[in-house]
Design brief:
The chain is α/β, with parallel strands linked by helices. It has a single domain, classed as Rossmann fold (3-Layer(aba) Sandwich). A seven-stranded mixed sheet has the order 3-2-1-4-5-9-8, sandwiched between helices. A two-stranded antiparallel sheet has the order 6-7. The chain is globular. The chain starts with a helix and ends with a strand.
Amino acid sequence: MANEASRAAYSGRATEYIDLLGSMSSVHPSDLQMVSTWASDVDGVLVDAGCGPGHWTNFLAEQGSSARGIDQVPEFIEHAAMTFPAVAFAVGSIDSIDAATASVGGVLSWYSLIHYEPGTIQGPLREFSRVLQPGGTLLVGFFEGDAVEEFAHAVAPAYRWSVDALSAELHSAGFDVLESHVRKTAGERSQATVSAVSRG
């Protein structure tokens, strides 16, 4: 999460967010397939960076991944730990992940970068690069647009990115982009995923 203001905003609406989006039943089928396919190729520990209510972390653990989740919102982590007691969760920032350098096989950043201003997004991206082992992979989910621009997210101000713009940021942070997908659904914001491999 980008700053104290956005953390506080999610804390204040955590119950509402969990009720609306805190289960796998709210997940789009194509997202489920995308994340599942990516995770099946991860070798080693998988960090769900900005895990929210923890449903994705638990899903990945149930699929056989060695997954753990971190999030800055204590209410999310409390809910996750109570709901999925077999999975490891911790309060933490994706700007400073509690993991040794080159110790992680995969990082899932599922809409956890959307509140970062463009000038600050290198912070978490470089942290992802630090914790990933050479050849480790990152999967980013985000709101897509023709340009990098702010929009009025329901919880806190957020940014949409073009695939090219985010790919350039990833390259600067030590990644090579593997593939990208854009999903446009009538009546919804355009969404995208980019997978990338750490150059080590």
